[in-house]
Amino acid sequence: MNQTTDIFESNVTDMDLATASSEFLTSSNRSLETYSSSMIAKYWVPATALECLGFVLKLSLMLFIILAALLGNLLVIVSVMRHRKLRVITNYFVVSLALADMLVAIWAMCFNFSVEVTGGVWIFGYFMCDVWNSLDVYFSTASILHLCCISVDRYYAIVQPLDYPLIMTNRKLAFMLAVVWCSPALVSFLPIFMEWYSTEEHLLFRKRNHYICSFTVNKVYAIASSSVSFWIPGMVMIFMYYRIYVEADRQERMLYRSKVAAALLNKHLQINGITAGLTLLRQSMDAATEKADAGCSSKMKRERKAARTLGIIVSAFLTCWLPFFLWYVITSLCAEACYNPPEVVTLVFWVGYFNSALNPLIYAYFNREFRVAFKKTLQSCCDFATRLITRRRKNPHDPYVYSNASSELQVNSHFRTDHHRKNDNNKRMSCLSEGESLNFHTEAVI
């Protein structure tokens, strides 16, 4: 009897604990929902004119980043397609990077912009929230992996220039691009749609509140995804740039030493009077040496420019994405203990997005070939737009537009045909009147 009573009491206690925990979870969800609703109302309805101005400036800056990423990366793709000189292996990585950055602007930035416009309200439903989070992680990771591949390609081009055509073949290029485009799915679509990325409490809260699309992750997913998306590619890029810088500096010192050795040899021959019989040979050797030095120096200049461009790209990458991934890992590890204001979330997201708009500007400013190709492409677009506007202004209703010379020729020919027709009719009428009068006279005579 006592055992039965104890068992019953223990069961009642377990039931009470389960009920209490469910009520606590419900109350916590309600409080979180109330907090989210109050936060949405706070950001959606600006209280003062200063808040309205800040809201408009924020949206304008976001829209500028979206348009810059779209148009700049589209310009990169069109320029490489139009100019045969840019169709080298490295620029295929650049074109693929531009495509990834364009998709970041279309899917990640635009959905985030819609959330900012609505004041934090997600209007596309539960399923599209998972789609947006997956595409955001996927294309951002693909963009970062492209930068890693470009650094590896430049490393082999500068450190091993003779073996570069054998190392970077079309088959290896296709394999690297396939890895870059397929591997981000392992940290985006698979864990998000399988619901491995977050906690059960957050998934339950999302199912009850479809108008809120927050990306709250667990600790395991935070470490794994950040390592694949940022930390490992970032370390590879820094190591490759360091090796490129060391090799470029070594080659420059070797070129300087060869020039000094040639100058000392020439001076030694002049001092000893040996140049009398070796004048022609020395001139030919000097000419060959000058050509070789010019070729080496031009090659060194190109490689140093490429290394400098890569260094700027790596610096911009770290500047844009390091704050986001530091915030991402720290807030995921400390969970509720860290204060996480919405303004900081928006700032770190859009600073990372800005990297997609910054890459075309870096290529346009620091790469002469891209700069020339961009100018020609923009000039062609402006000429086409000018011709199109001019044609529509001449005759907005007629889809077929003719030049002034052709129109005048048609008008003159029309007037000439009308004049000839009138002359022929007059001649016919005169002939007819004469015939009628002749008939009249003959009838009278008869």
TrEMBL record:
<comment type="similarity">
    <text>Belongs to the G-protein coupled receptor 1 family.</text>
</comment>
<protein>
    <recommendedName>
        <fullName>Octopamine receptor beta-2R</fullName>
    </recommendedName>
</protein>
<keyword id="KW-0807">Transducer</keyword>
<dbReference type="GO" id="GO:0071880">
    <property type="term" value="P:adenylate cyclase-activating adrenergic receptor signaling pathway"/>
</dbReference>
<feature type="transmembrane region" description="Helical">
    <location>
        <begin position="220"/>
        <end position="244"/>
    </location>
</feature>
<keyword id="KW-0472">Membrane</keyword>
<feature type="transmembrane region" description="Helical">
    <location>
        <begin position="59"/>
        <end position="80"/>
    </location>
</feature>
<dbReference type="GO" id="GO:0005886">
    <property type="term" value="C:plasma membrane"/>
</dbReference>
<keyword id="KW-0675">Receptor</keyword>
<feature type="domain" description="G-protein coupled receptors family 1 profile">
    <location>
        <begin position="72"/>
        <end position="363"/>
    </location>
</feature>
<keyword id="KW-1003">Cell membrane</keyword>
<keyword id="KW-0325">Glycoprotein</keyword>
<feature type="transmembrane region" description="Helical">
    <location>
        <begin position="345"/>
        <end position="366"/>
    </location>
</feature>
<dbReference type="GO" id="GO:0004989">
    <property type="term" value="F:octopamine receptor activity"/>
</dbReference>
<keyword id="KW-0812">Transmembrane</keyword>
<feature type="transmembrane region" description="Helical">
    <location>
        <begin position="309"/>
        <end position="330"/>
    </location>
</feature>
<dbReference type="InterPro" id="IPR000276">
    <property type="entry name" value="GPCR_Rhodpsn"/>
</dbReference>
<dbReference type="InterPro" id="IPR017452">
    <property type="entry name" value="GPCR_Rhodpsn_7TM"/>
</dbReference>
<feature type="transmembrane region" description="Helical">
    <location>
        <begin position="92"/>
        <end position="115"/>
    </location>
</feature>
<feature type="transmembrane region" description="Helical">
    <location>
        <begin position="173"/>
        <end position="194"/>
    </location>
</feature>
<dbReference type="GO" id="GO:0043410">
    <property type="term" value="P:positive regulation of MAPK cascade"/>
</dbReference>
<keyword id="KW-1133">Transmembrane helix</keyword>
<dbReference type="Pfam" id="PF00001">
    <property type="entry name" value="7tm_1"/>
</dbReference>
<feature type="transmembrane region" description="Helical">
    <location>
        <begin position="135"/>
        <end position="152"/>
    </location>
</feature>
<keyword id="KW-0297">G-protein coupled receptor</keyword>
